[in-house]
Amino acid sequence: METNAPDLDQSLSTETAPDQSSDQPPTELTAEQYQRKMQRRKQVQEQRLADKTNQKGLVIVHTGNGKGKTTAALGMVLRSLGHGYRVAIVQFIKGAWEPAEKVVLAPWTEPKDGSLPQLEFHAMGEGFTWETQDRQRDIEKAQAAWQKALSFIHNSDFRTVLLDEVNIALKLGYLQVEQVLTGLEQKPENSHVILTGRGAPPALIERADLVTEMTLIKHPFKEQGIKAQAGIEF
Q1: Whole-structure pTM value
Q2: Higher pLDDT, 100 or 169
Q3: How far apart are CA 121 and CA 98, in angstroms?
Q4: Judging by beta carbons within 10 Å of its beta carbon (0-12, 13-18, 19+), is residue 67 exposed, middle or buried?
Q5: Residues 14, 27, 54, 130: which is the catalytic one?
Q6: In this structure, are residues 76 and 194 in contact, taking their beta carbons and an 8 Å threshold?
Q7: Separation between Cα atoms, residue 149 and residue 165, nearest integer Å
């Protein structure tokens, strides 16, 4: 499980005692001033960590039009695997192709020494709506993926469950937000559920403990006509 350490690069100016060097860039401080500044920052950081004693499983949402929602979630998956936790991934839209991440994560999906695999990976979609062209089948696939997801969400053996592109299924009406919220309320206390995809509904954002919106600034496809490339998009 991740520690509750805050971002050390965040400004602490409102929490540190004022001093004559507080408004100076680090390059303009003397070695002694810089050391004093870092000592004060260290004290504040240690106090902030000491004050944070709560621990709980989180509902995490990655949304927005920018790139990186699934990529960031996979980083959390790797951390969980590195800690030895069991993890499940259910992909709601992808599935018509073999994503590179599935290949990389394959070793964790194999049982070892007679034990259960550390990772369950299920790509249960059939691709984008303009490819499938069958709304009823898309709904059935999404509902089947949700039932598979529930089997992991409600299982205390799994510390982290990633529901990749589930927000898209919600946005398209393949799933109802009420059924997803109900399912999340039944998760074990210490497990984490990550939901990715643009267009996360307000009710899900309200329920979540951690929400990150990826903001699109520039994209090579739109700006330069560069197609999706291996290692970047898939």
Answers
A1: 0.78
A2: 169
A3: 12
A4: middle
A5: 130
A6: yes
A7: 12
